[in-house]
Specification:
This protein is mostly beta strands and 136 residues long. The protein has 2 helices and 11 strands; from the N terminus they run αββββββαβββββ. It has one domain. A hairpin with a 2-residue loop joins strand 2 and strand 3.
């Protein structure tokens, strides 16, 4: 897989800085594609695997709040913002998300902040329910 450009990693860090975790939040995951210098980027919290106790092995999606105004300010130009509350169809796995279309660091982007990771995403961290979280 190709390594993402540095400006994209900066954008993902910016999204992380706009998040307020409701519980333990691990690393963010992201996927992207580029067509004709238009970048589509999906950012999401990685799922957590619970370790210990009765829920051992359970995978959960971390909850978070997003400071939308702070994320607005990160764009040089913002052409649109949209909220998708329900999947568009049976094959749409993005789930609820907030999308931003604009210019970030000189690049035209469509950024979608997903409420949870795509179904095929592996846990990004472990939470020891008897202690704190661990890296996988």
């Amino acid at each position: 897989m190709l390594r993402s450009p540095g400006w994209m990693e900066s954008l993902v860090d910016t999204v992380l800085g706009c998040m307020d975790a409701h519980n333990t939040l691990g690393p963010l995951g992201y996927r992207w594609r580029n067509e004709d210098d238009f970048w589509e980027i999906w950012v999401y919290p990685t799922p957590a695997e619970l370790v210990g106790g009765a829920a051992d092995g359970t995978v959960v999606n971390p909850g978070f709040s997003l400071d939308v105004q702070q994320l607005f300010a990160a764009f040089e130009k913002l052409a649109g913002v949209s909220w998708l509350a329900q999947p568009l169809g049976p094959h749409d796995q993005d789930g609820p998300n907030l999308s931003f279309e604009g210019v970030y660091d000189g690049h035209e982007v469509w950024l979608s902040v997903l409420s949870h990771a795509p179904d095929d995403e592996e846990p990004g961290f472990k939470v020891d329910v008897t202690r704190r979280w661990k890296e996988p």
